[in-house]
Design a protein that fits this description.
single chain; alpha/beta; 3-stranded antiparallel beta sheet; 21 helices; 53% helix; aminoacyl-trna synthetase; arginine-tRNA ligase activity; tRNAsynth_Ia_anticodon-bd; ligase
């Protein structure tokens, strides 16, 4: 039951619906201290309607409400404070969680609408660095959150597999490359050649011209250029998929930039036909002055296409293929202005899904204070970070629990989970500095801390033996159990909030609060004492285990039963 909605309904009834229940709902607060109840309604909004002092209105409301869902209703100044009936609410919440299990919090808000998610999108022939982590894990978590809210996400890894960088790479490979080296360790050597190109072209500008010529050959279908490009693409995808497998991330489509090559002319033709394409200093642009935006450059003076040309073609393809209700672009915040331009162009073109285009920006990631750059050779490889994290987790597990079975599997779940959680616990718009040792700690705001709380709950349940958790009376009224019950009761609202804001950190921060509340309960309560409330306490522990595991799943993190 949504007790916030119940408060809104009873307040609306008490004032003869002079203000709607939905308007009241929006004003309901959660008091900072338990002394002020579990929910509070500030009566200020009713003063103009009822022509009375808010304090008097609050007293009137408190005196007129009579329902056993609340143990007490008090007017304190202009506030009406509601104290929930702890026994009744705890029984109802635990029964619901134990019945619905991992489906607790599911809703149908999305009405099975398709949402395309443009995410990860690494460049071919470059390794996946820590710089690719954010788009990948944020996009993956958003997809899971959307599914829980009734949407049907389609994850599109829009690979950077076209562009002038391939002219540079082909030039570098033909000048300094070695086929055997590339076969032995493809990504390492392709990056080495790419970095060397940028080091040398500072002294030899002719290299840039040569690279442009090779990319022109690639665009024209030159057999040698196409053969090298396909080779670079194949070995890169193989390496990428090894990393995605470690992260537990998959995709519905890998349509890279090259997929849209034959669709670019249609974009230009449509813009011309609609009278949207204009000439500006020899280039072709779409005027966006009516949106207070700079013109969108569609074709360069030499007729070459740009990123926006491809993104328009991509949006049209997705619109025609999937008929999405939303198009999400999980791309760094430095591209915010660009996506405003893209959306404006698509709306001028009358694209049906344009209104649902959302840029989902995120902040910069640095590693130990250093900014990452492939071009300048400052790369922290994501694969290596994941491997190191698993190695460190394995060492910690060996020290803490040397008899643990499946130690390697648990180390992989904890190590990879620590990296993912270490990103997602932050509001995505914030820039973060990643420190692996900090993220692997079993205390503090870390993935292992939440995973360990789940494993601790499972350990308690294992000691209790097989029981019917849904049998018996689940009324709990002690303060520490009540803190957990309120958190469990709020999970469906947390799921909705995370979806509305495209914000995985809402789930991550919730999981930390629940883990902390459970650890406090575990420390101060003799859970396995054989008394009349044993089943209720075990039902609470089982519910915590279910919801911690589900919260971690929504982040793309595993929840081992033992650690």
């Amino acid at each position: 039951m949504d007790y916030k909605q119940l408060v809104a309904d009873v307040v609306a009834d008490a004032v003869d619906n002079q203000v709607s229940s939905s308007d009241i709902y929006a004003k309901i607060e959660t008091p900072k201290t338990a002394q002020n109840g579990d929910l509070a309604f500030p009566a200020f909004m009713l003063a103009k309607v009822m022509h009375q002092n808010p304090k008097i209105i609050a007293e009137q409301i408190a005196s007129e409400i009579n329902t056993d869902a609340f143990s007490q209703i008090k007017a304190v100044g202009p506030y009406v404070n509601f104290f929930l009936n702890q026994g009744q609410v705890s029984a109802q919440v635990l029964e619901t969680v134990l019945t619905e299990k991992d489906h607790y919090g599911d809703n149908h808000d999305g009405d099975n609408g398709v949402v395309t998610i443009d995410m990860s999108s690494p460049n071919i022939a470059k390794p996946m660095s820590m710089g690719h982590l954010r788009s990948t894990v944020i996009g993956n978590s958003i997809a899971k959150i959307l599914t829980k809210n009734g949407y049907r996400p389609i994850k599109d890894n829009h690979l950077g597999d076209w562009g002038t960088q391939f002219g540079k790479l082909i030039t570098a490979y033909l000048k300094w490359g070695n086929e055997e080296d590339v076969k032995r360790d493809p990504i390492h050597y392709l990056v080495k050649y790419y970095v060397e190109f940028h080091q040398r072209d500072e002294q030899d500008p002719a290299l840039d011209e040569e690279a442009r010529e090779w990319f022109k050959k690639l665009e024209d279908g030159d057999p040698e250029a196409v053969k090298l490009w396909k080779w670079f693409r194949d070995v890169s995808l193989k390496a990428f998929n090894q990393t995605y497998k470690k992260l537990g991330v998959d995709f519905d489509t890998y349509n890279g930039e090259s997929f849209y090559n034959d669709k670019l002319q249609d974009v230009v033709d449509t813009l011309k036909k609609d009278g949207l394409l204009e000439k500006s200093q020899g280039a072709s642009v779409v005027d966006l002055s009516d949106q207070d935006l700079n013109p969108a450059l569609i074709l360069k003076t030499d007729g070459a296409s740009l990123y926006v040309t491809r993104d328009i073609a991509t949006a049209i393809y997705r619109d025609e293929t999937y008929h999405p209700v939303m198009n999400l672009y999980v791309v760094g915040s430095e591209q915010t202005y660009y996506f405003k331009q893209l959306k404006a162009v698509l709306q001028k073109m009358g694209l049906q899904s344009a209104a649902g285009l959302h840029h989902v920006p995120f902040g910069l990631i640095t590693v130990n204070g250093k900014k990452l750059s492939t071009r300048h050779g400052n790369i922290v490889l994501l694969n290596e970070v994941l491997d190191e994290s698993v190695k460190m987790a394995a060492q910690q597990i060996k020290e803490k629990n040397p008899t643990l079975p499946n130690q390697q599997q648990v180390a992989e779940e904890v190590g990879v989970g620590a990296v993912i959680f270490g990103d997602l616990k932050n509001s995505r718009i914030d820039s973060i500095d990643f420190n692996l040792q900090d993220q692997l700690k079993f205390e503090g705001e870390t993935g292992p801390y939440v995973q360990y709380a789940h494993a601790r709950a499972e350990s308690v349940l294992a000691k209790a033996g097989k029981r019917d958790y849904q049998a018996g009376n689940h009324q709990l009224t002690d303060d520490e159990a009540w803190e957990i019950v309120k958190l469990l009761q709020s999970f469906p609202a947390v799921v909705k909030k995370a979806n509305a804001e495209f914000e995985p950190s809402v789930i991550a921060k919730y999981s930390l609060r629940l883990a902390k509340a459970f650890n406090k309960y575990y420390a101060h309560t003799k859970i396995l004492t054989d008394d009349e409330q044993l089943d209720a306490r075990l039902a609470l522990v089982k519910s915590v285990s279910i919801i911690l595991k589900e919260a971690l799943r929504l982040l793309g993190v595993q929840a081992p039963d033992e650690m």
